[in-house]
Protein backbone atom coordinates (compact mmCIF):
# COMPACT_ATOMS: atom_id res chain seq x y z
CA UNK A 1 0.00 0.00 0.00
CA UNK A 2 2.81 2.39 0.88
CA UNK A 3 4.31 1.68 -2.48
CA UNK A 4 1.06 2.65 -4.13
CA UNK A 5 0.85 5.80 -2.07
CA UNK A 6 4.39 6.65 -2.98
CA UNK A 7 3.64 6.07 -6.64
CA UNK A 8 0.61 8.31 -6.42
CA UNK A 9 2.49 11.06 -4.59
CA UNK A 10 5.45 10.74 -6.91
CA UNK A 11 3.18 11.06 -9.90
CA UNK A 12 1.55 14.14 -8.44
CA UNK A 13 4.91 15.68 -7.63
CA UNK A 14 6.16 14.85 -11.11
CA UNK A 15 3.22 16.63 -12.63
CA UNK A 16 3.98 19.66 -10.52
CA UNK A 17 7.64 19.50 -11.37
CA UNK A 18 6.84 19.25 -15.06
CA UNK A 19 4.63 22.27 -14.74
CA UNK A 20 7.37 24.24 -13.05
CA UNK A 21 9.88 23.06 -15.60
CA UNK A 22 7.61 24.25 -18.36
CA UNK A 23 7.45 27.65 -16.73
CA UNK A 24 11.20 27.81 -16.51
CA UNK A 25 11.90 26.69 -20.04
CA UNK A 26 9.45 28.96 -21.76
CA UNK A 27 11.02 30.11 -24.98
CA UNK A 28 12.22 33.61 -24.37
CA UNK A 29 13.28 34.05 -27.95
CA UNK A 30 16.24 35.88 -26.65
CA UNK A 31 18.50 32.98 -25.85
CA UNK A 32 21.49 32.38 -27.97
CA UNK A 33 20.37 29.05 -29.30
CA UNK A 34 22.07 25.79 -28.68
CA UNK A 35 25.18 24.53 -30.30
CA UNK A 36 24.55 22.34 -33.29
CA UNK A 37 27.93 20.79 -33.32
CA UNK A 38 31.66 21.22 -33.50
CA UNK A 39 32.18 23.31 -36.63
CA UNK A 40 31.78 27.04 -36.16
CA UNK A 41 30.77 29.02 -39.22
CA UNK A 42 30.97 32.77 -38.93
CA UNK A 43 28.66 35.11 -40.76
CA UNK A 44 30.27 38.51 -41.05
CA UNK A 45 28.22 41.68 -40.79
CA UNK A 46 29.35 45.01 -42.12
CA UNK A 47 27.20 48.08 -41.50
CA UNK A 48 27.38 51.49 -39.86
CA UNK A 49 27.09 50.54 -36.20
CA UNK A 50 27.98 54.03 -35.00
CA UNK A 51 27.30 57.46 -36.39
CA UNK A 52 24.32 59.02 -38.12
CA UNK A 53 23.17 55.87 -39.90
CA UNK A 54 23.59 53.48 -36.99
CA UNK A 55 19.81 53.13 -36.54
CA UNK A 56 19.74 51.25 -39.82
CA UNK A 57 23.06 49.47 -39.29
CA UNK A 58 22.18 48.10 -35.87
CA UNK A 59 18.87 46.81 -37.22
CA UNK A 60 20.88 44.90 -39.83
CA UNK A 61 23.27 43.46 -37.24
CA UNK A 62 20.54 42.37 -34.86
CA UNK A 63 18.53 40.72 -37.61
CA UNK A 64 21.53 38.69 -38.75
CA UNK A 65 22.14 37.71 -35.14
CA UNK A 66 18.54 36.52 -34.91
CA UNK A 67 18.95 34.41 -38.05
CA UNK A 68 22.13 32.78 -36.71
CA UNK A 69 20.49 32.05 -33.35
CA UNK A 70 17.44 30.62 -35.04
CA UNK A 71 19.56 28.31 -37.21
CA UNK A 72 21.45 27.13 -34.13
CA UNK A 73 18.30 26.56 -32.15
CA UNK A 74 16.77 24.56 -34.97
CA UNK A 75 20.05 22.72 -35.58
CA UNK A 76 19.40 23.73 -39.15
CA UNK A 77 22.80 22.55 -40.32
CA UNK A 78 23.77 19.39 -38.50
CA UNK A 79 27.24 19.71 -36.99
CA UNK A 80 27.50 23.44 -37.61
CA UNK A 81 27.11 26.29 -35.16
CA UNK A 82 26.71 29.76 -36.59
CA UNK A 83 28.07 32.88 -34.99
CA UNK A 84 28.31 36.42 -36.20
CA UNK A 85 31.13 38.93 -36.27
CA UNK A 86 29.91 42.48 -36.79
CA UNK A 87 32.14 45.26 -38.05
CA UNK A 88 31.42 48.97 -38.09
CA UNK A 89 32.05 50.71 -41.40
CA UNK A 90 30.72 54.10 -40.19
CA UNK A 91 29.24 54.46 -43.69
CA UNK A 92 32.77 55.09 -44.98
CA UNK A 93 34.08 53.20 -48.04
CA UNK A 94 37.62 53.06 -46.64
CA UNK A 95 36.44 51.52 -43.37
CA UNK A 96 34.31 49.09 -45.32
CA UNK A 97 37.28 47.96 -47.33
CA UNK A 98 39.35 47.40 -44.19
CA UNK A 99 36.51 45.40 -42.70
CA UNK A 100 36.29 43.31 -45.86
CA UNK A 101 39.98 42.52 -45.65
CA UNK A 102 39.64 41.54 -41.99
CA UNK A 103 36.65 39.32 -42.69
CA UNK A 104 38.47 37.60 -45.54
CA UNK A 105 41.39 36.91 -43.19
CA UNK A 106 39.10 35.11 -40.75
CA UNK A 107 38.86 31.64 -42.26
CA UNK A 108 35.74 30.77 -40.30
CA UNK A 109 33.81 33.46 -42.20
CA UNK A 110 31.84 31.82 -45.01
CA UNK A 111 29.56 34.72 -45.88
CA UNK A 112 29.00 38.38 -45.14
CA UNK A 113 25.80 40.36 -44.79
CA UNK A 114 26.10 44.03 -45.69
CA UNK A 115 26.83 46.78 -46.24
CA UNK A 116 24.14 49.44 -45.96
CA UNK A 117 25.65 51.98 -48.34
CA UNK A 118 26.20 51.39 -52.03
CA UNK A 119 29.36 53.50 -51.93
CA UNK A 120 30.76 51.23 -49.22
CA UNK A 121 29.80 48.15 -51.23
CA UNK A 122 31.82 49.42 -54.18
CA UNK A 123 34.94 49.38 -52.02
CA UNK A 124 34.30 45.88 -50.71
CA UNK A 125 33.14 43.91 -53.72
CA UNK A 126 36.54 43.15 -55.22
CA UNK A 127 38.09 42.18 -51.88
CA UNK A 128 35.37 39.61 -51.31
CA UNK A 129 35.33 38.43 -54.90
CA UNK A 130 39.09 37.79 -54.93
CA UNK A 131 38.60 35.58 -51.87
CA UNK A 132 35.46 33.95 -53.34
CA UNK A 133 33.66 35.03 -50.19
CA UNK A 134 29.97 35.62 -50.70
CA UNK A 135 28.46 38.98 -49.78
CA UNK A 136 24.71 39.54 -49.55
CA UNK A 137 23.53 43.09 -49.03
CA UNK A 138 20.11 43.75 -47.57
CA UNK A 139 20.15 47.42 -48.49
CA UNK A 140 22.31 48.38 -51.47
CA UNK A 141 20.12 49.70 -54.26
CA UNK A 142 22.55 51.13 -56.81
CA UNK A 143 22.01 49.14 -60.02
CA UNK A 144 25.69 49.16 -61.07
CA UNK A 145 26.67 46.89 -58.18
CA UNK A 146 25.06 43.92 -59.87
CA UNK A 147 24.50 45.04 -63.44
CA UNK A 148 27.67 47.00 -64.20
CA UNK A 149 28.23 50.70 -64.67
CA UNK A 150 26.58 50.68 -68.09
CA UNK A 151 23.48 48.93 -66.72
CA UNK A 152 21.02 51.24 -68.46
CA UNK A 153 22.25 50.02 -71.86
CA UNK A 154 24.04 46.72 -71.33
CA UNK A 155 23.78 44.71 -68.17
CA UNK A 156 26.96 42.90 -67.18
CA UNK A 157 27.52 41.41 -63.76
CA UNK A 158 30.84 42.61 -62.33
CA UNK A 159 31.21 40.21 -59.38
CA UNK A 160 29.73 36.75 -59.01
CA UNK A 161 30.20 36.79 -55.23
CA UNK A 162 27.90 39.78 -54.71
CA UNK A 163 24.15 39.40 -54.11
CA UNK A 164 21.42 41.56 -52.66
CA UNK A 165 17.94 41.05 -51.32
CA UNK A 166 16.93 44.70 -51.83
CA UNK A 167 15.32 46.03 -54.98
CA UNK A 168 17.44 48.33 -57.12
CA UNK A 169 17.11 52.03 -57.87
CA UNK A 170 16.49 51.10 -61.49
CA UNK A 171 13.00 50.36 -60.20
CA UNK A 172 12.84 52.54 -57.09
CA UNK A 173 13.56 55.86 -58.84
CA UNK A 174 11.02 55.38 -61.64
CA UNK A 175 8.42 54.03 -59.21
CA UNK A 176 8.79 57.20 -57.15
CA UNK A 177 8.57 59.32 -60.30
CA UNK A 178 5.36 57.60 -61.34
CA UNK A 179 3.82 58.19 -57.93
CA UNK A 180 4.91 61.82 -57.71
CA UNK A 181 3.73 62.65 -61.23
CA UNK A 182 0.57 60.55 -61.54
CA UNK A 183 -0.74 60.19 -58.00
CA UNK A 184 0.60 63.24 -56.19
CA UNK A 185 0.11 65.30 -59.37
CA UNK A 186 3.39 67.15 -59.00
CA UNK A 187 4.80 68.41 -62.29
CA UNK A 188 7.78 70.62 -61.36
CA UNK A 189 10.60 69.07 -59.39
CA UNK A 190 13.78 70.41 -57.85
CA UNK A 191 16.30 67.55 -57.64
CA UNK A 192 19.00 67.47 -54.98
CA UNK A 193 21.54 64.74 -54.23
CA UNK A 194 24.46 64.17 -51.90
CA UNK A 195 26.92 63.23 -54.69
CA UNK A 196 27.33 59.73 -53.26
CA UNK A 197 26.87 56.54 -55.24
CA UNK A 198 23.45 55.82 -53.81
CA UNK A 199 22.07 59.33 -53.72
CA UNK A 200 23.27 60.50 -57.11
CA UNK A 201 22.23 57.23 -58.74
CA UNK A 202 18.75 57.31 -57.26
CA UNK A 203 18.25 60.96 -58.20
CA UNK A 204 19.27 60.11 -61.75
CA UNK A 205 16.80 57.25 -62.16
CA UNK A 206 14.02 59.38 -60.66
CA UNK A 207 14.81 62.31 -62.92
CA UNK A 208 14.91 60.25 -66.11
CA UNK A 209 11.48 58.77 -65.50
CA UNK A 210 9.95 62.04 -64.27
CA UNK A 211 11.00 63.70 -67.51
CA UNK A 212 9.65 60.84 -69.62
CA UNK A 213 6.29 61.23 -67.93
CA UNK A 214 6.18 64.88 -68.92
CA UNK A 215 7.44 66.42 -65.69
CA UNK A 216 9.77 69.38 -65.61
CA UNK A 217 13.01 69.64 -63.66
CA UNK A 218 13.15 73.27 -62.53
CA UNK A 219 16.45 73.02 -60.70
CA UNK A 220 19.18 70.69 -59.53
CA UNK A 221 21.68 71.01 -56.72
CA UNK A 222 24.19 68.90 -54.83
CA UNK A 223 24.86 69.07 -51.13
CA UNK A 224 27.77 68.07 -48.98
CA UNK A 225 26.87 64.97 -46.93
CA UNK A 226 28.75 66.43 -43.95
CA UNK A 227 26.78 69.68 -43.95
CA UNK A 228 23.80 70.56 -41.81
CA UNK A 229 23.10 74.06 -43.07
CA UNK A 230 21.15 73.93 -46.32
CA UNK A 231 19.65 77.41 -46.19
CA UNK A 232 21.18 78.46 -49.52
CA UNK A 233 19.72 75.43 -51.31
CA UNK A 234 16.41 75.96 -49.52
CA UNK A 235 16.20 79.52 -50.83
CA UNK A 236 17.03 78.26 -54.31
CA UNK A 237 14.21 75.75 -54.07
CA UNK A 238 11.81 78.44 -52.91
CA UNK A 239 12.70 80.68 -55.84
CA UNK A 240 12.50 77.91 -58.43
CA UNK A 241 8.73 77.55 -58.29
CA UNK A 242 9.05 73.79 -57.79
CA UNK A 243 6.01 71.98 -56.43
CA UNK A 244 8.08 69.06 -55.13
CA UNK A 245 11.68 68.31 -54.13
CA UNK A 246 13.34 65.00 -54.84
CA UNK A 247 16.34 64.19 -52.67
CA UNK A 248 18.79 61.40 -53.42
CA UNK A 249 20.54 60.67 -50.15
CA UNK A 250 20.01 59.64 -46.57
CA UNK A 251 17.99 60.84 -43.61
CA UNK A 252 20.69 62.62 -41.58
CA UNK A 253 20.76 65.28 -44.31
CA UNK A 254 17.25 64.82 -45.67
CA UNK A 255 15.61 65.68 -42.34
CA UNK A 256 17.26 69.08 -41.85
CA UNK A 257 16.95 69.75 -45.60
CA UNK A 258 13.20 69.21 -45.48
CA UNK A 259 12.88 71.44 -42.43
CA UNK A 260 14.96 74.24 -43.90
CA UNK A 261 13.09 74.15 -47.22
CA UNK A 262 9.79 74.59 -45.37
CA UNK A 263 11.32 77.28 -43.15
CA UNK A 264 12.39 79.11 -46.29
CA UNK A 265 8.74 79.35 -47.28
CA UNK A 266 8.47 76.53 -49.79
CA UNK A 267 5.67 74.43 -48.31
CA UNK A 268 6.23 71.59 -50.73
CA UNK A 269 6.87 67.91 -50.05
CA UNK A 270 10.32 66.41 -50.03
CA UNK A 271 10.49 62.97 -51.60
CA UNK A 272 13.31 60.49 -51.19
CA UNK A 273 14.18 56.82 -51.37
CA UNK A 274 14.79 54.09 -48.81
CA UNK A 275 17.67 56.15 -47.41
CA UNK A 276 15.23 58.58 -45.80
CA UNK A 277 12.67 55.98 -44.75
CA UNK A 278 13.57 56.11 -41.06
CA UNK A 279 11.94 57.43 -37.92
CA UNK A 280 14.89 59.74 -37.44
CA UNK A 281 13.99 61.57 -40.65
CA UNK A 282 10.69 62.64 -39.08
CA UNK A 283 12.42 63.68 -35.88
CA UNK A 284 14.92 65.78 -37.79
CA UNK A 285 12.43 67.27 -40.20
CA UNK A 286 9.97 68.29 -37.51
CA UNK A 287 6.28 68.97 -37.83
CA UNK A 288 6.65 70.36 -41.33
CA UNK A 289 7.48 66.86 -42.57
CA UNK A 290 3.80 66.02 -42.90
CA UNK A 291 3.24 65.06 -46.53
CA UNK A 292 6.87 64.21 -47.23
CA UNK A 293 7.24 60.94 -49.12
CA UNK A 294 9.69 58.06 -49.27
CA UNK A 295 9.88 54.93 -51.28
CA UNK A 296 11.36 51.88 -49.65
CA UNK A 297 12.22 48.38 -50.64
CA UNK A 298 9.65 45.68 -49.97
CA UNK A 299 6.06 45.63 -48.84
CA UNK A 300 5.08 46.93 -45.41
CA UNK A 301 5.91 44.29 -42.82
CA UNK A 302 2.30 44.17 -41.63
CA UNK A 303 1.25 43.04 -45.11
CA UNK A 304 3.59 40.09 -45.08
CA UNK A 305 2.33 36.99 -43.30
CA UNK A 306 5.84 35.64 -43.64
CA UNK A 307 7.18 38.50 -41.50
CA UNK A 308 4.93 37.85 -38.54
CA UNK A 309 7.21 35.29 -36.92
CA UNK A 310 10.29 37.44 -37.55
CA UNK A 311 8.69 40.44 -35.89
CA UNK A 312 7.60 38.35 -32.90
CA UNK A 313 10.98 36.68 -32.51
CA UNK A 314 12.84 39.96 -32.87
CA UNK A 315 10.70 41.48 -30.16
CA UNK A 316 11.16 38.47 -27.92
CA UNK A 317 14.91 38.64 -28.34
CA UNK A 318 14.89 42.04 -26.66
CA UNK A 319 17.32 43.77 -28.94
CA UNK A 320 17.81 47.36 -27.90
CA UNK A 321 17.34 48.76 -31.37
CA UNK A 322 14.50 48.44 -33.84
CA UNK A 323 14.99 46.17 -36.85
CA UNK A 324 14.37 49.32 -38.94
CA UNK A 325 13.99 49.47 -42.71
CA UNK A 326 16.19 46.50 -43.60
CA UNK A 327 15.60 44.01 -40.78
CA UNK A 328 13.59 41.53 -42.82
CA UNK A 329 16.01 41.78 -45.72
CA UNK A 330 18.96 41.31 -43.39
CA UNK A 331 17.43 38.19 -41.90
CA UNK A 332 16.79 36.85 -45.40
CA UNK A 333 20.33 37.74 -46.48
CA UNK A 334 21.76 35.82 -43.55
CA UNK A 335 19.40 32.93 -44.13
CA UNK A 336 20.47 32.67 -47.77
CA UNK A 337 24.02 32.12 -46.51
CA UNK A 338 22.78 29.60 -43.93
CA UNK A 339 20.83 27.75 -46.63
CA UNK A 340 23.92 27.70 -48.82
CA UNK A 341 26.09 26.36 -46.00
CA UNK A 342 23.53 23.62 -45.43
CA UNK A 343 23.59 22.67 -49.10
CA UNK A 344 27.39 22.56 -49.17
CA UNK A 345 27.60 20.50 -45.98
CA UNK A 346 24.90 18.09 -47.12
CA UNK A 347 26.61 17.63 -50.48
CA UNK A 348 29.90 16.86 -48.79
CA UNK A 349 28.85 14.07 -46.48
CA UNK A 350 28.01 16.28 -43.54
CA UNK A 351 31.25 18.22 -43.43
CA UNK A 352 32.52 21.48 -44.85
CA UNK A 353 34.77 20.98 -47.88
CA UNK A 354 38.16 22.64 -48.20
CA UNK A 355 36.90 25.12 -50.78
CA UNK A 356 33.85 25.95 -48.70
CA UNK A 357 33.81 29.66 -49.56
CA UNK A 358 33.63 29.10 -53.31
CA UNK A 359 31.02 26.41 -52.89
CA UNK A 360 28.90 28.56 -50.57
CA UNK A 361 29.05 31.40 -53.09
CA UNK A 362 27.87 29.05 -55.83
CA UNK A 363 25.13 27.69 -53.60
CA UNK A 364 23.79 31.16 -52.75
CA UNK A 365 23.16 31.67 -56.46
CA UNK A 366 20.68 28.79 -56.36
CA UNK A 367 18.95 29.24 -53.02
CA UNK A 368 15.20 29.40 -53.00
CA UNK A 369 13.21 29.60 -49.80
CA UNK A 370 10.29 31.36 -48.18
CA UNK A 371 11.85 34.17 -46.22
CA UNK A 372 10.65 37.05 -44.10
CA UNK A 373 10.12 39.22 -47.16
CA UNK A 374 8.56 36.53 -49.34
CA UNK A 375 10.26 34.12 -51.71
CA UNK A 376 14.01 34.58 -51.69
CA UNK A 377 16.09 33.74 -54.74
CA UNK A 378 18.53 35.55 -57.02
CA UNK A 379 18.62 36.21 -60.74
CA UNK A 380 21.63 35.92 -63.04
CA UNK A 381 22.97 39.28 -61.81
CA UNK A 382 22.68 38.48 -58.13
CA UNK A 383 19.62 40.67 -57.73
CA UNK A 384 16.60 39.55 -55.74
CA UNK A 385 13.87 38.05 -57.89
CA UNK A 386 11.27 39.40 -55.45
CA UNK A 387 10.99 43.07 -56.27
CA UNK A 388 8.48 44.98 -54.22
CA UNK A 389 8.37 48.63 -53.35
CA UNK A 390 6.22 50.84 -51.20
CA UNK A 391 5.55 54.55 -51.12
CA UNK A 392 5.26 55.94 -47.59
CA UNK A 393 3.96 59.35 -46.53
CA UNK A 394 4.53 61.16 -43.27
CA UNK A 395 1.18 61.44 -41.54
CA UNK A 396 0.70 62.50 -37.93
CA UNK A 397 4.38 62.14 -37.19
CA UNK A 398 4.81 58.64 -38.58
CA UNK A 399 5.40 56.89 -41.87
CA UNK A 400 2.29 55.44 -43.40
CA UNK A 401 2.21 53.17 -46.44
CA UNK A 402 0.21 54.75 -49.24
CA UNK A 403 0.98 52.56 -52.25
CA UNK A 404 2.82 49.34 -52.97
CA UNK A 405 3.99 47.85 -56.20
CA UNK A 406 5.51 44.65 -57.51
CA UNK A 407 7.92 44.48 -60.39
CA UNK A 408 7.29 41.43 -62.54
CA UNK A 409 9.28 42.28 -65.64
CA UNK B 1 8.71 -6.53 12.07
CA UNK B 2 8.80 -5.37 15.62
CA UNK B 3 5.61 -7.18 16.47
CA UNK B 4 3.42 -4.10 16.49
CA UNK B 5 1.84 -5.12 13.28
CA UNK B 6 2.11 -3.81 9.84
CA UNK B 7 2.88 -0.16 9.59
CA UNK B 8 0.51 0.10 6.70
CA UNK B 9 -2.84 -1.62 6.73
CA UNK B 10 -3.11 -4.65 4.60
CA UNK B 11 -5.39 -5.15 1.68
CA UNK B 12 -8.98 -4.78 2.69
CA UNK B 13 -8.24 -3.11 6.02
CA UNK B 14 -9.91 0.18 6.73
CA UNK B 15 -7.99 3.40 6.93
CA UNK B 16 -9.50 4.15 10.31
CA UNK B 17 -6.21 2.86 11.65
CA UNK B 18 -4.39 5.68 9.91
CA UNK B 19 -6.77 8.59 10.08
CA UNK B 20 -4.11 11.27 9.57
CA UNK B 21 -2.94 9.99 6.24
CA UNK B 22 -5.14 12.56 4.54
CA UNK B 23 -5.36 16.13 5.62
CA UNK B 24 -8.94 16.65 4.70
CA UNK B 25 -11.11 19.31 6.24
CA UNK B 26 -12.88 17.84 9.18
CA UNK B 27 -10.35 15.13 9.86
CA UNK B 28 -7.64 17.11 11.51
CA UNK B 29 -9.51 19.41 13.79
CA UNK B 30 -9.73 16.90 16.60
CA UNK B 31 -13.49 17.10 16.87
CA UNK B 32 -15.89 14.26 16.69
CA UNK B 33 -15.89 14.61 12.98
CA UNK B 34 -12.88 12.39 12.71
CA UNK B 35 -14.95 9.37 13.08
CA UNK B 36 -18.33 10.64 12.23
CA UNK B 37 -18.09 12.88 9.16
CA UNK B 38 -19.68 11.35 6.07
CA UNK B 39 -16.94 12.90 3.94
CA UNK B 40 -14.26 11.52 6.14
CA UNK B 41 -15.94 8.15 6.10
CA UNK B 42 -16.16 8.29 2.34
CA UNK B 43 -12.51 9.20 2.09
CA UNK B 44 -11.55 6.60 4.57
CA UNK B 45 -13.49 3.95 2.75
CA UNK B 46 -12.19 4.82 -0.69
CA UNK B 47 -8.69 5.96 0.12
CA UNK B 48 -7.01 4.39 -2.87
CA UNK B 49 -9.64 5.65 -5.23
CA UNK B 50 -9.33 9.16 -3.80
CA UNK B 51 -5.54 9.06 -4.14
CA UNK B 52 -5.78 7.87 -7.72
CA UNK B 53 -8.36 10.52 -8.53
CA UNK B 54 -6.27 13.25 -6.92
CA UNK B 55 -3.22 12.11 -8.90
CA UNK B 56 -5.25 12.09 -12.08
CA UNK B 57 -6.58 15.56 -11.35
CA UNK B 58 -3.07 16.85 -10.70
CA UNK B 59 -1.73 15.27 -13.85
CA UNK B 60 -4.61 16.63 -15.86
CA UNK B 61 -4.15 20.06 -14.33
CA UNK B 62 -0.42 19.94 -15.08
CA UNK B 63 -1.06 18.77 -18.60
CA UNK B 64 -3.71 21.38 -19.08
CA UNK B 65 -1.37 24.06 -17.82
CA UNK B 66 1.38 22.85 -20.14
CA UNK B 67 -1.00 22.88 -23.06
CA UNK B 68 -2.48 26.24 -22.25
CA UNK B 69 0.89 27.88 -21.74
CA UNK B 70 2.83 26.14 -24.50
CA UNK B 71 5.13 28.44 -26.49
CA UNK B 72 3.25 30.57 -28.94
CA UNK B 73 5.27 29.37 -31.92
CA UNK B 74 3.93 25.87 -31.59
CA UNK B 75 0.35 27.01 -31.76
CA UNK B 76 -1.43 26.31 -34.97
CA UNK B 77 -1.46 29.34 -37.23
CA UNK B 78 -4.13 31.84 -36.37
CA UNK B 79 -5.26 31.31 -39.94
CA UNK B 80 -5.49 34.95 -40.91
CA UNK B 81 -5.56 34.84 -44.68
CA UNK B 82 -2.75 36.59 -46.53
CA UNK B 83 -3.14 40.09 -47.89
CA UNK B 84 -4.27 39.78 -51.51
CA UNK B 85 -1.33 41.71 -52.94
CA UNK B 86 1.03 39.13 -51.47
CA UNK B 87 -0.52 36.19 -53.28
CA UNK B 88 -1.40 37.70 -56.65
CA UNK B 89 1.00 37.80 -59.58
CA UNK B 90 0.34 39.80 -62.70
CA UNK B 91 2.67 39.19 -65.63
CA UNK B 92 2.76 40.62 -69.10
CA UNK B 93 2.16 38.18 -71.95
CA UNK B 94 2.18 40.38 -75.04
CA UNK B 95 0.15 42.40 -77.49
CA UNK B 96 -3.42 41.44 -78.35
CA UNK B 97 -4.95 42.16 -81.75
CA UNK B 98 -8.06 44.29 -81.50
CA UNK B 99 -11.02 43.21 -83.64
CA UNK B 100 -11.61 44.99 -86.94
CA UNK B 101 -13.88 47.96 -86.57
CA UNK B 102 -12.62 48.89 -83.13
CA UNK B 103 -12.56 52.64 -82.69
CA UNK B 104 -9.27 54.35 -83.57
CA UNK B 105 -6.49 54.85 -81.03
CA UNK B 106 -7.38 51.59 -79.34
CA UNK B 107 -4.97 48.77 -78.62
CA UNK B 108 -4.84 45.78 -76.29
CA UNK B 109 -2.49 43.57 -74.28
CA UNK B 110 -2.70 40.18 -72.63
CA UNK B 111 -1.72 39.80 -69.00
CA UNK B 112 -1.85 36.75 -66.77
CA UNK B 113 -3.24 37.09 -63.27
CA UNK B 114 -2.53 34.23 -60.91
CA UNK B 115 -3.47 33.61 -57.29
CA UNK B 116 -0.84 31.64 -55.44
CA UNK B 117 -2.55 30.72 -52.18
CA UNK B 118 -5.15 31.67 -49.64
CA UNK B 119 -8.78 32.44 -50.29
CA UNK B 120 -10.09 33.39 -53.72
CA UNK B 121 -9.26 36.92 -54.84
CA UNK B 122 -11.68 39.23 -56.60
CA UNK B 123 -10.34 41.88 -58.93
CA UNK B 124 -12.67 44.83 -58.55
CA UNK B 125 -10.82 47.33 -60.74
CA UNK B 126 -7.97 47.52 -63.22
CA UNK B 127 -6.64 50.94 -64.12
CA UNK B 128 -3.57 52.74 -65.36
CA UNK B 129 -2.28 56.06 -64.13
CA UNK B 130 -2.28 58.30 -67.21
CA UNK B 131 -4.95 60.96 -67.64
CA UNK B 132 -5.16 60.62 -71.41
CA UNK B 133 -5.84 56.90 -71.46
CA UNK B 134 -8.93 54.86 -70.63
CA UNK B 135 -8.87 51.14 -69.86
CA UNK B 136 -11.28 48.21 -69.94
CA UNK B 137 -10.65 44.58 -69.15
CA UNK B 138 -12.01 41.29 -70.39
CA UNK B 139 -13.37 39.67 -68.37
CA UNK B 140 -14.84 42.87 -67.02
CA UNK B 141 -14.40 43.60 -63.33
CA UNK B 142 -15.30 42.27 -60.88
CA UNK B 143 -13.98 38.78 -61.52
CA UNK B 144 -12.85 36.13 -59.12
CA UNK B 145 -9.83 33.85 -59.25
CA UNK B 146 -9.22 30.89 -56.98
CA UNK B 147 -5.92 29.99 -55.36
CA UNK B 148 -3.73 27.84 -57.55
CA UNK B 149 -5.23 29.12 -60.76
CA UNK B 150 -4.47 31.88 -63.21
CA UNK B 151 -6.51 33.61 -65.84
CA UNK B 152 -5.63 35.53 -68.94
CA UNK B 153 -6.98 39.05 -69.05
CA UNK B 154 -7.23 41.27 -72.09
CA UNK B 155 -6.45 44.86 -71.24
CA UNK B 156 -7.86 47.22 -73.86
CA UNK B 157 -6.71 50.84 -73.80
CA UNK B 158 -8.09 53.82 -75.64
CA UNK B 159 -6.24 57.11 -76.00
CA UNK B 160 -8.60 59.92 -75.10
CA UNK B 161 -6.04 62.73 -75.19
CA UNK B 162 -2.60 62.33 -76.71
CA UNK B 163 -1.22 65.29 -74.82
CA UNK B 164 -1.81 63.52 -71.54
CA UNK B 165 0.00 60.27 -72.14
CA UNK B 166 3.74 59.73 -71.79
CA UNK B 167 5.11 58.29 -75.02
CA UNK B 168 8.09 56.45 -73.55
CA UNK B 169 7.63 55.78 -69.85
CA UNK B 170 10.32 53.46 -68.60
CA UNK B 171 8.34 51.70 -65.90
CA UNK B 172 4.61 51.87 -66.57
CA UNK B 173 2.31 49.79 -64.41
CA UNK B 174 -1.24 48.69 -63.93
CA UNK B 175 -3.10 49.49 -60.75
CA UNK B 176 -5.18 46.51 -59.71
CA UNK B 177 -7.71 46.61 -56.89
CA UNK B 178 -7.79 43.25 -55.14
CA UNK B 179 -10.20 41.95 -52.57
CA UNK B 180 -10.12 38.81 -50.50
CA UNK B 181 -11.31 37.73 -47.07
CA UNK B 182 -8.49 39.75 -45.48
CA UNK B 183 -8.49 43.13 -47.18
CA UNK B 184 -9.08 45.35 -50.16
CA UNK B 185 -5.85 46.67 -51.63
CA UNK B 186 -4.80 48.70 -54.62
CA UNK B 187 -1.51 47.31 -55.84
CA UNK B 188 0.69 48.47 -58.70
CA UNK B 189 2.02 45.78 -61.01
CA UNK B 190 5.09 47.01 -62.86
CA UNK B 191 5.10 44.80 -65.90
CA UNK B 192 8.68 45.36 -67.03
CA UNK B 193 10.58 46.59 -70.06
CA UNK B 194 8.72 44.55 -72.68
CA UNK B 195 5.39 46.01 -71.60
CA UNK B 196 6.96 49.47 -71.44
CA UNK B 197 8.22 49.12 -74.98
CA UNK B 198 4.96 47.71 -76.37
CA UNK B 199 2.91 50.41 -74.64
CA UNK B 200 5.25 53.07 -75.89
CA UNK B 201 5.01 51.80 -79.48
CA UNK B 202 1.23 51.56 -79.29
CA UNK B 203 1.01 55.12 -78.00
CA UNK B 204 3.34 56.36 -80.73
CA UNK B 205 1.14 54.75 -83.36
CA UNK B 206 -2.10 55.89 -81.76
CA UNK B 207 -0.93 59.46 -81.49
CA UNK B 208 0.92 59.76 -84.77
CA UNK B 209 -0.49 62.21 -87.29
CA UNK B 210 -1.68 59.36 -89.53
CA UNK B 211 -4.07 58.03 -86.98
CA UNK B 212 -5.83 61.30 -86.39
Automatic annotation (TrEMBL), chain A:
SUPFAM superfamilies: Periplasmic binding protein-like I. Keywords: Signal. Pfam families: Peripla_BP_6 (PF13458). It comes from the Bacteria. Residues 41-397 form the Leucine-binding protein domain. InterPro entries: Leu-bd, Peripla_BP_I. Residues 1-22 form the signal peptide. Belongs to the leucine-binding protein family. This is Branched chain amino acid ABC transporter substrate-binding protein. It comes from Streptomyces phaeofaciens.
From TrEMBL, chain B:
It comes from the Bacteria. Residues 1-37 are annotated as: Disordered. This is Tat pathway signal sequence domain protein. It comes from Streptomyces phaeofaciens. The lineage of its organism: Bacteria, Bacillati, Actinomycetota, Actinomycetes, Kitasatosporales.
Amino acid sequence: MRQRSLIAITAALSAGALTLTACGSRDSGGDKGSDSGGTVVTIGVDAPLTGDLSALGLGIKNSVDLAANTANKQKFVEGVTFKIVAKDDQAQPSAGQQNATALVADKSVLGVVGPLNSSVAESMQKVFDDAKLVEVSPANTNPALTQGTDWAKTKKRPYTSYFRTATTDAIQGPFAAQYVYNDAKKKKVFVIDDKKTYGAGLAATFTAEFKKLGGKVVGTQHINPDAKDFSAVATEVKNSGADVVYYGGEYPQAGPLSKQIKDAGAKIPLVGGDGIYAEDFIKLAGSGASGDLATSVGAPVEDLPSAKEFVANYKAANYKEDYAAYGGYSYDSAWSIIEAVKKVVDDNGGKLPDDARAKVTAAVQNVSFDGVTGKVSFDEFGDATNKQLTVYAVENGAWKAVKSGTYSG
Amino acid sequence: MSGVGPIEPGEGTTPRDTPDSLDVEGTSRGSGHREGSPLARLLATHRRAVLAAATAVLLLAGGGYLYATRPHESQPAAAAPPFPSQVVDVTYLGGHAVPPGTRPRTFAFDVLLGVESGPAVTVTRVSQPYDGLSLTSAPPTPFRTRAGSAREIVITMHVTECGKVPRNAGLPFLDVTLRNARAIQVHSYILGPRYAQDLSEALQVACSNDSR
